[in-house]
Design a protein that fits this description.
It contains five helices and no strands. The chain is mainly α. It has one domain. The radius of gyration is 20 Å and the shape is elongated.
Length: 175
């Protein structure tokens, strides 16, 4: 049953805009994976330094915290395009395809509006952190810098949400 559900997910969008969006989202996900790989290496070196030299990397938890936020936000657009979000479908299991598409479209619209709101608020937050020169406590790393890829990821997520909204509406109207 689970395999049948995976087969229903289109691996590649039908239109050119969807393919471009899919490619950009995949690049963002690869970037997020590389960031997580760097974080893992930082953690290994810090633990190694703590055990062997009794001296961990200074501010390792700050770097892990920042990098995880960047990585997670980088995965969100592709996750949404691939219907990878958690869905409780026992309620909708007996609904028609049009009703399910309507609920999917509605959730994509709400998620898109929410992502747009978050990204616009993060722009203002990053601006304030830049103006007030806010930095991390140990490394004195400017906090506004990691906000930039997160903001771009959330704007990309917004586009992905509105794209899936239009695709679901098209599916409803086309059937």
């Amino acid at each position: 049953m689970i395999l049948n559900k995976f087969k229903k997910i289109k691996m590649r969008p039908d239109n050119q805009f969807g393919r471009i969006l899919n490619t950009i989202s995949r690049l963002f996900a690869l970037f997020g994976g590389l960031v997580l790989l760097v974080v893992a290496l930082i953690s290994v070196f810090s633990i190694f330094g703590r055990v062997v030299f009794s001296s961990p990397l200074l501010g390792d938890f700050e770097l892990v915290e920042i990098a995880c936020a960047v990585a997670i936000s980088s995965f969100l657009p592709l996750c949404h395009l691939k219907n990878g979000n958690v869905i409780v479908d026992f309620i909708t299991a007996k609904l028609s395809k049009n009703k399910i598409n309507f609920l999917d479209a509605l959730s994509s619209l709400i998620f898109g509006v929410t992502a747009l709101f978050f990204s616009s608020r993060m722009v203002l937050g990053a601006r304030d952190m830049y103006v007030y020169q806010e930095e991390t406590m140990l490394l004195a790393f400017p906090i506004w810098i990691p906000f930039l890829p997160v903001i771009v990821s959330f704007f990309l997520l917004t586009i992905c949400c509105f794209y899936t909204f239009t695709i679901k509406i098209y599916d409803i109207l086309g059937s």
